[in-house]
C-alpha cells in the first residue's frame, strides 16, 4: 500500500499532468472537429494497419501526421447502435439504441429518444456550427420526426434510414427534414449520381462556408458497405493484376457489381482519394492547423468476414455481427497539427462512447449527462499518457438472430458469451486472434468476468436478454 506521503505526491503529479492537458487545450483557438466514419471498413483494410493490396496514400499520410490507435473499439458490431454510442457517450449496456431496426422485442424500430443529447448538442453549447453529412440511419420508420436537427445538428444531408444507405444510386436523400431528390438516380440500374460523391462535394462546400466559424462535421460515409458498386474509373488501377475473381450476387437486395475484389478495392481507394480532397481543402482555406481530424469505421468488415484475400481483419477473428475482435476493433486515427504527436501510436483501450467527453474536454465544456460511460482520451491524444484515465471494462451486446451475444473486456481479458452457448474467455495479450478458449483453464478469472458481466447493463424493454428467435416468435 502507498503511505500518505507517496499518495500525496501521486495526486499532485496527476493534477500537474491534468493541468498541462487543460492548458494545452485552452491555449489554442477552438479547433474545428471533423469526424470521418467509413461503413464496414475492416481493421486491416487501410495502409496504416497493414493493408498491402489496396492503396490508401491519403490515410497513410494522415497516420504519419497523427496518432494511430491499436485498441480502439466501435460502439457495436452493426451500424445503428454503434452510431448511437458514438453520438451519446453510452455503451451498449446503457444506450437507448441497442440494435438495428427489426431486432427489437416489439418489431418497432428504436431511435434516439426525442431531443436526446449528443456530441453535437454539447458542441453547440461551445458555439460550434454542427453538421452530419452521409448516413444518419437513426430516424427509422418516422417521417420528419426525430431528425438530426433534434439532436444538435444545424445541417444534415444524407440517408435518413439505414436500408436506403445500402444503395449508392438511391434517389431520395434528406436535406435537414425535407426530401432531397436526385431525379436522375435509379438504384436498380445503378444510374445517376454516386451518392458517395454527393456527400464528399457537400463536405467540401460545408468547410468552405463555415471556415470562419468553429465547426463540427460528422462525415458518415457509406463506403465500403454492401452493395459493392463503384464507377469504373476507380476499378482500373486494380484490373489486370492477376487477382482472383470473386463473383457477386447481382440480383438480390444489394445491386452488386459482377466482380467483388476490384470493386471493393476501388471503393476503398475512391474514399481515400476523396478524403485527400478534403484534406487539401483544409490547407487551401488555411484552417488545417486548427482542425482535429478523426478517421474510423463503424464496425468490422462484412465483405471479407471469411474470405481473406485482402486480410481485412488483420490478425483478428470474425467480422461484422461478431463480438470477436474482428467485429468491433476498428481503425482509429487522429490528427491535430502541433498538438497530437505526429507519427505516434497508442495502445490505449478506448471506444466510441469516449468521443463525446473527449471533444468536450477539447472545447472546454462539461458533458451534460454525468452518467455517460465514456472517458475523455484527450490526455492520450496530447501525449500525456500518465494522466490518462483508463476504463475498468468495456461492454458490448449484439441483439440479432444470432444473439443476444455479450462481450466484455477488462485489461487484457475478454469474455464472449452467447446466451444459449458456453462462455469463451481469451487473453488478448497473448492471443489477439481469440483462438484459445481459456474458460476451463482459468476458472477463477472466468467467474470474475461473469460476475462483472451481470453488472454491466441496465434493462431495456425492447432489448431483453432472451434469444431473438423467442422474440420473433412472440410477435407472430
From TrEMBL:
The keyword RNA-binding does not apply. This is Arylsulfatase A-like enzyme. GO terms for molecular function: arylsulfatase activity. InterPro entries: Alkaline_phosphatase_core_sf (IPR017850), Sulfatase (IPR050738), Sulfatase_N (IPR000917). Signal peptide: none annotated. It comes from the Bacteria. Gene3D superfamilies: 3.30.1120.10, Alkaline Phosphatase, subunit A (3.40.720.10). Belongs to the sulfatase family. It comes from Algibacter lectus. Residues 31-364 form the Sulfatase N-terminal domain. CDD domains: ARS_like. Keywords: Hydrolase.
Amino acid at each position: 500500500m502507498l503511505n500518505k506521503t507517496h499518495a500525496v505526491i501521486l495526486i499532485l503529479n496527476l493534477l500537474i499532468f491534468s493541468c498541462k492537458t487543460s492548458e494545452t487545450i485552452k491555449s489554442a483557438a477552438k479547433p474545428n472537429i471533423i469526424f470521418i466514419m467509413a461503413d464496414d471498413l475492416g481493421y486491416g483494410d487501410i495502409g496504416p494497419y497493414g493493408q498491402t493490396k489496396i492503396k490508401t496514400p491519403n490515410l497513410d499520410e494522415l497516420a504519419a501526421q497523427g496518432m494511430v490507435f491499436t485498441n480502439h473499439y466501435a460502439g457495436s458490431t452493426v451500424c445503428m447502435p454503434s452510431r448511437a454510442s458514438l453520438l451519446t457517450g453510452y455503451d451498449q449496456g446503457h444506450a437507448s439504441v441497442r440494435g438495428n431496426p427489426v431486432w427489437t422485442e416489439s418489431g418497432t424500430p428504436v431511435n434516439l429518444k426525442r431531443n436526446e443529447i449528443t456530441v453535437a448538442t454539447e458542441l453547440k453549447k461551445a458555439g460550434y456550427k454542427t453538421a452530419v453529412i452521409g448516413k444518419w440511419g437513426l430516424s427509422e420508420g418516422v417521417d420528419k420526426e426525430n431528425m438530426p436537427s433534434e439532436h444538435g445538428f444545424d445541417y444534415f444531408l444524407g440517408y435518413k434510414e439505414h436500408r436506403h444507405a445500402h444503395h449508392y444510386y438511391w434517389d431520395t436523400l434528406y436535406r435537414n427534414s425535407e426530401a432531397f431528390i436526385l431525379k436522375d438516380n435509379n438504384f436498380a440500374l445503378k444510374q445517376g449520381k454516386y451518392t458517395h460523391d454527393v456527400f464528399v462535394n457537400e463536405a467540401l462546400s460545408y468547410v468552405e462556408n463555415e471556415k470562419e466559424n468553429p465547426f463540427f462535421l460528422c462525415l458518415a460515409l457509406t463506403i465500403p458497405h454492401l452493395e459493392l458498386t463503384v464507377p469504373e474509373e476507380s476499378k482500373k488501377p486494380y484490373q489486370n493484376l492477376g487477382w482472383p475473381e470473386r463473383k457477386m450476387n447481382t440480383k438480390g437486395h444489394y445491386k452488386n457489381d459482377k466482380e467483388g475484389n476490384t470493386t471493393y478495392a476501388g471503393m476503398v481507394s475512391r474514399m481515400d482519394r476523396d478524403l485527400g480532397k478534403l484534406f487539401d481543402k483544409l490547407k487551401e482555406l488555411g484552417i488545417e492547423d486548427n482542425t482535429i481530424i478523426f478517421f474510423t469505421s463503424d464496425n468490422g468488415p462484412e465483405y471479407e468476414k471469411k474470405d481473406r484475400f485482402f486480410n481485412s481483419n488483420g490478425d483478428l477473428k470474425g467480422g461484422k455481427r461478431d463480438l470477436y475482435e474482428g467485429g468491433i476493433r476498428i481503425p482509429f486515427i487522429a490528427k491535430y497539427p502541433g498538438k497530437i504527436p505526429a507519427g505516434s501510436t497508442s495502445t490505449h483501450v478506448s471506444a466510441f462512447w469516449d468521443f463525446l467527453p473527449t471533444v468536450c474536454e477539447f472545447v472546454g465544456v462539461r458533458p451534460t449527462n454525468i452518467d455517460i460511460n465514456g472517458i475523455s482520451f484527450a490526455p492520450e491524444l496530447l501525449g500525456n499518457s500518465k494522466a490518462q484515465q483508463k476504463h475498468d471494462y468495456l461492454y458490448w451486446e449484439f441483439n440479432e438472430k444470432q444473439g443476444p451475444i455479450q462481450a466484455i473486456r477488462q485489461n487484457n481479458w475478454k469474455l464472449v458469451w452467447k446466451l444459449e452457448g458456453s462462455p469463451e474467455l481469451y487473453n488478448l495479450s497473448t492471443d489477439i486472434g481469440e483462438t484459445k478458449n481459456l474458460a476451463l483453464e482459468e476458472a477463477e478469472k472466468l467467474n470474475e468476468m461473469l460476475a462483472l458481466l451481470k453488472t454491466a447493463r441496465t434493462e431495456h424493454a425492447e432489448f431483453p436478454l432472451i434469444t431473438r428467435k423467442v422474440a420473433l416468435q412472440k410477435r407472430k
